[in-house]
Amino acid sequence: MKFKIIKKHTYCLVWALLASWIFVQCKKSDSNALLSLSIKESTLNTAANQMELTVAKGKSIQITPIFMPRNYPNTQVQYSFSAGGIATVSADNMFTGLAVGTDTLVISASNIRTRYVVKVSAE
């Protein structure tokens, strides 16, 4: 009888420790997750339901990545273009129009990828 009680309490203790460990691991991963990434200077084209970045050919603007949560620890951003040759983004986030046209800019950080339509207009 005494052995059954000890065995029952041991199982309860193991399950409680396991549940606590799982809860802590979930909290850790939730607090480190990047929820969204956006560019402050982008605009919403409501007709097309898409975010856009616009610049004139030969001109540059500074773009600002915004992370959610704001205290996200890894603020490294990678930029890539679908076609290329229309615009470029430097390591210090300078967005420059190279040729008149439209392209898609993909911004990546951690587990998030965000797409923007890039429009370069004539000078």
Secondary structure topology:
Blueprint: H1 2-31, E1 36-39, E2 43-45, E3 50-56, E4 60-62, E5 65-68, E6 78-81, E7 87-89, E8 94-97, E9 101-109, E10 112-121
Parallel strand pairs: 3-10
Antiparallel strand pairs: 1-5, 2-3, 4-8, 6-9, 7-8, 9-10
Describe this structure in words.
The protein contains one helix and ten strands, in the order αββββββββββ. It has one helix spanning 2-31; strands spanning 36-39, 43-45, 50-56, 60-62, 65-68, 78-81, 87-89, 94-97, 101-109, 112-121. The chain folds into two domains: 1-31; 36-121, Immunoglobulin-like, CATH 2.60.40. The chain has a five-stranded mixed β-sheet, with no helix packed on it. A three-stranded antiparallel β-sheet has the order 4-8-7, with no helix packed on it. A two-stranded antiparallel sheet has the order 1-5. The longest helix has 30 residues, at 2-31. With 123 residues, it is of the alpha+beta class. It comes from Sphingobacterium griseoflavum. InterPro entries: Big_2, Invasin/intimin_cell_adhesion. Pfam families: Big_2.
